[in-house]
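Deliverable D4.2, example record:
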Amino acid sequence: MQTVLMTGFYIALVALLVVLGLGIANIARSDDKQASRSNKLMRLRILVQAVVIVILVALGVTVGAIKIGF
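Output generated by the structure prediction step:
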């Protein structure tokens, strides 16, 4: 389980870097759809960040660094 979560964590981090890079590249563009695209990329970045945080918490529970319950 720990290996699966670590792999998922790294994949999610790469996805986050890709979305962030696309957002930064979009800032340099100056077409009429730039604002709409920027908004969509921001929403996607927030979603991917949430997934990364959930995987990180699950990994912490699996390893034993975070204790839930009594």
